[in-house]
Amino acid sequence: MEEIWEKSQTVDPEVRAYVYSLVTAVGGSSSYDDTYQVGDDAYAALQDLTKWLRLYDEKLNRFDVKRCLAEANLVKGDLLEILALWPESTQENKLKAKLALACLQLLVPLTWPMELEDEKTTVNHHRHLPYLQLAQVGYKRAILHYEHAKILRTSVRIGLPSMSVERRERTKRDEGIIRLMLYLFRNMAMIVQPQMLPSQGDENEISRSSTVDVFHDQDIFSLLLTLGSGANDEFQDQDVILLEILFHLLKGVDAKKLFMEQKQMQAQETDELKSLMQREKAMHKGYNRHAPSRHNRFGTMLWVKREDEKMSTLTGQASIVDGDATLQMMDQSKKWNKPRQRGKIAQQTNEQTDFGEKVELTETARQHLRSFTEDFLDSGFNPLFSSLRKAIERETDRVGEVHKRQYFYLINWFLSAESARRSQAEASQRPLEDSTFAYIAAVLDQETFVLLNRHMQRFFDEKNWIDLQSTLLAFTQILLTVQTMAESKDEEDQEIAENIQNRIFYEEATHDRIVQILRGYTNQGFAYLDTVTECVHVFVRMLERYSKQNADLHIRSKRRARKKASKQSNTTGQDDPEDAAEEERSAHATVSERKFDFSRFSAKFLSQPCVDTFISLLYFYADLNPDQLKRCHRYFYRLAFKHELAILLFRVDILQLLHRMVKGPRGLSTEIDGYKDWEALVQQVFRRCVKWLSKDVAGDGWKEMCVTEMLFSKIPASVFYLQNGYERVVEKRAPRAPAELEFKGTVEEAMKVPVIVSLLLEQSKGEILDWVKREFERAIEERKAWEAERAAMSSIEREAEGECPHIGAVLPPPTIFLSRGTDERKEQLFKDKHLRLLLTTIGCERLGTVEDADASWTIPSDLSTEEVTEGLAAIKRTEFDPPHFEEGKTAAEMVRNKSAVRRVAINTYDSADDEDTDGNAGAGAGAGESDVNVDASLFPPNLRESRKETDGEERPSKRRRLTKRTRTELTDAQADERAAERRRREKERNSKIKSRLFVTESDDESDADADAEFFRLEAERRRKTAGEIRSALLKRMEEGDGEEGGVLDVEAGKKEKGKSKQKRGSAADAGARGKRAEKRRKTASPLATTDDEMEDDEDLVGASSSEAEETAPRPTKRRPIFEEDSDVDTDTGADAATATAAPTATATATVTEAEPAAIVSQTRQKRPAMFEEDSDEDDGDAMDGVKPHDPASPAQKALKEVSGNAGLSGTLLDGLNDRDEDEHDVPLVKPIVRRGTRAGFVVEDDSDSDDE
Q1: SS (H, E, C) 749-807
Q2: Is the distance from CB of 425 to CB of 432 less than 8 angstroms?
Q3: Of the listed ranges 4-18, 523-537, 605-619, the one predicted with least confidence
Q4: Distance (Å, whole) CA 54 – CA 57
Q5: What is the mean pLDDT of residues 1140-1154?
Q6: Greatest CA separation for the chain
């Protein structure tokens, strides 16, 4: 490579002469001593050299001036000497400071790293680039290790005066000086030894360790800390340059090793050496099996006969060991000329941009860099990265594409360093500060996540793999940091981690992006492959853990709305580009929130491209560390066993790779961690593969098909069949009918068609309107043709009318079917609710059910030709003259969905009328003809009213209905009969109720005269009824004064027991009964009635008793009405008598013939609160299944109006006997709860117990 150091003959001699003359004028060595002497015009010469670089090299895009300056040794011979002449003691010397600044202006462009761009690279660049790269390595060595002065510290002294000025008062010159100083530091950190060029000295002098040591010794780290801490304020414009310096100082450095102690580092290095020796041993072991020995030096050759009489030749005794060795040697001898990849190839990296290469540091450099990193995390991380994020978001001029990559990489590096520092502190049991996570909070906010996701998607779309790798590194380290925060003992950190995870995992777009990146790997390199698989592994693991902790996790899903194809007829035959652009802009993303299902999400990672990505990583198994091997093992285990998709591994190359890993040759070492896990996994995969091949499937050729499929990747459409041996049966869901529309009440009849046509035009559905017009025109032609035919035949029909009268009958016009044409039109007729409203408004009818997608639309025979013509004319008028609505309303505001409540109510009564044709007769027999013929649409069923619980109120216990075990099954006829009876009673009950849905404020309006007459009649009826009841009660009390009191038991087996109890209590109660009778006489005497009225009451109660005996159910347990804390007044009238004679809760309820109505009536009058719907009484004891008696007389109707019960319970009347038997005191019974009420009205029958 001697030609590199030769003077270039391609540089213009005139340019070389000018440059050399300027270099000579700068200065040189003194003739008296060996010291350096500055020339008289040194400052002017330095300025001229700067101009030559700017105006010749940069403007003409050449390297000639730089080549001449490198050959003239300007940097080492002049610039460094001038900087050394300015010691710290002469800081105020302005001339030397001026010369030092001029030297700095030359040093920066000369040390600026050169990168070739394909579009701008010329022959001149390729000719000078190797020489200049080696010259820059020399510049760096000279600057870092200059003997007489600290060059970098001198550069700091040049920039300090400008840095001391406040930002608002700095001039452009001050900002330029600060930038020059920082660019020199950046260049020193960036220059490395070119890999393709020979080294001209000790590479350790320009290594990363040497650079770090010099930066520490000359206080460059202190300057960087100052700039970092003020990046948000004083040094905001220098944040990007500081980012570059940090990137080139820290890239490739292992942050975990940086924070290890010296003993830990030695142990780590020992383990690495041991691992390398194990690999070497395994490699030698495989080689020694067929290594040459003293006995196999004899030549060996053999021929292998292949198909078509072809022969293959193999040499060496290793080929005759076994068949596998022979085939392996044949494979190794094959040559494959791999075709070149078409399209965009993977980006080439260089020393400046490659951050995947590891860099080792010396112990001193590691200590210095560790100290700087800790100080920077504590003071400068948050200000610097906040400023950088804002600059990237604003897309300022100082931010380039390479800076975004460096920004994301440094996020990854510093978060990893913070994690290593925390782990080291916990391991050494050093006390941690309150919250060290606050030092990295600048990259854990929502703005950073948005920026990260946006650039990740952009880099993936642009196939910028290096930048995408940097974003994946940052995203992975953020996830690991959040996981550490979630495991922290501090509740504040746990809450912050919970919020961050919720924000990250809430967006489904993030999930899909990770899946796409994993699937998109092709040949981007090992570093990119390792980063992608690590990101997927961490993301899936954390998401699985978070979804288990949050069972109700929801995610926001974005789906792009389908772009409806516009097929409007274009008369000009040309498409308007503006309309096309508007349609493109109209495409939007629909956002919805749904519950997260991890199994559904994890299935996205189990496709064949994802498997191929992990297989690509596994091909490097000999170079993978235990963590990387474990990552692959976890993925394949989840694939094959958790999701039962081992079928994706049944491919020849994959099976061969797995077999070679475990069995060799050149397989995994048996001493590494995780070898047993891999061995078990491979064994199970092969076992399942054998079972798959030998599966018993209907039909022939299964094994042959499986062997063929093992040569190819599996596609999703065939995976289910390959697993199970049969096709998946997918049931197609029936289409759902659209919502039914109607016009609002303010729309006039003549405006309905224009409104719906305008709505269709607003939706760009002109093509549908054209189809409607064509169909109506065809229908009009057919109808007119039919009418003309009928007119022509009218004379013939009139002549034949005398002989056959039916011939002359008028026939309706035929029904015309609308032609659906294509499947698209068929779908529109079913799903387009606006089109359906238009057809319905004009008068068309739809044949078929609501869910029938194949239903046809017809123009019925009762729709006249004039009506069809009028509808067609309305459509055409609206197309050319759309209507204008008041108050700026649109056509969409004139229609609405039909009320669901109204449809349900009408459909209920329609179905009842259709199914129960004889219900009116049955209802009329029981309730009177006036109650049957009620307009059902005016009185739909009442909505059930939920009972609100008040504070402190106990919820009533639910009743358990006991059914007979020996219940017989009903026949279909019996079931239909009972259902019809139930519908009849339901309709009869609803016909007597005025629904509160239709009760308005006007119902409360009434006139005073009508109200007065109503209340007068009610008071009269109440007085008459009270007189009848009390007369009957008085008569019973008089007849029972001299007789023994008692009750008649309902159950015959307990009659004797009841009589004995009466005898035991007769002596004690004799006096009390006399007093009670006397008191009843005094109370009831003013309202005494005649004997005839009393007899009528007795007949009434007797009739009720006899009817109740027929339908009385089994006796139930009763509870007394009055509890100990009852507030009911028991000192007057019949209430005193009933309260005194109240039985216990377990006594059987009995009653005399004439007493029940009186008891119920008085109870309602005295204690109305017990009959309220919200009463606290337990209504669980009320009898079920008792059929109420029919009204038989006016007196009975009067009682019913007063009582509020549909009828007397059969249990209360079971104990009634003949009138000649002894009569007893009236037992106290619990009134029946008013169950049969609707909207404040009493209903006779509210029980369906007969049908249950």
Answers
A1: HHHHHHHHHHHHHHCCCHHHHHHHHHHHHHHHHHHHHHHHHHHHCHHHHHHHCCCCHHH
A2: yes
A3: 4-18
A4: 6
A5: 38
A6: 162
